[in-house]
Amino acid sequence: MSRDAVLLAGSFGLGHEMMARGCVDLLEQSGWRTRRLDSMTLLGHVGGLAGDRLFNCLLGTPGVYDGLHFAHLRTGSRLADLMDRAATARMVPALRAELDRQPADVVFSVFATGASAAARLKAEAPARRNVVLCTDVAVHRMWVTAGTDLFLVTSAAAEESVRRYLPHARVAIVPPPVRAPFYAAPAQRQARAALGVPADGFCILMIDSGWGFCPLPESAAALADAGVDVLAVVGRQRAAERQLRKLAATRPRIRPFGFTDRVPELMAAADVVLALPGAVTCSEARVVGRELLMLDVMPGHGRDNLQHELELGGAHVCRPTVSGITARVLALREGPARPAARPSRPPRWEPAYAAALRQIGIDLLTPAPLELAGRQDVLSHAYVSATRESRSR
To answer: In the chain, helix, strand, coil percent, each to 5?
Structure first.
């Protein structure tokens, strides 16, 4: 018998979307029907537009965002409660209507406002399970509401941040979800050959998923002039992509990409991945076996996450300026030689999720960890073959 799941994501950046995709893949492999809803859309046209503008304004004023996050959202102040009530007042009726129109057995929330709204509807459908997945180190007040059956978090610090508000909450520590193509990424030499990157050079992958925090074109030019091969992914930033392509015309070491599904291959080709300290990108790089160089620029939860990634090891930090990025990358290039083989990967994430969800009566089918590990060479070959086929079309 088919079971139905709703994924509540958000339209801020790609991190929430990637987490939702991972959950969708896991559920659909076990025969679940899934559908995704955007929390910002559920706020209505006016509410969603206002929320989007407010968030972008706060990100553009890091000190204000830091103040909101550390003084209010993390501590659960009256302002945080007011923000939560204002958002859920708009979202709860819309979510209720969606669930009445097409009922669900479980609601997965990977966005704070969605988590709060789903929890508030628990009393109306006690049998429906509410699951929250948050990959931030500090799970702030708007994530945590009575009516959530299970919180999935990725660190002991995050677990305690949930219990700060709900001491008896059911919490499971799990790895961040990482999509299958990253486990199937090719070997570095193979990836470099496909991309035209010299086998013995130093190569960096620079990723800006859409926030525009990094002076990426200027930094790519400075690094290329210093003899570093640069793979630059600018997502949906069309102006930055045009600038990079113009630079690449005179600097062959720069290889620009817009929105692309080749990130696993690009990570495999690189020695270091430069990115914001988002849990999804950092986890993907660790699965591929690449060191991280993180920009110390993302305010609020980004500062919490940066410290956590540094503590995990295999990560470095730099200032978000052309000189700061260039100096740090060149220092890494001049450091100890790195082995050609990848470091050991983190374990697959699916078994931990299946075990956690089983606690609340949700059964999923996942391959055994050993079976997944044994398929690594086959997966890698399949990924490269599929990529080549898509290019030939």
So the answer is: 50, 15, 35
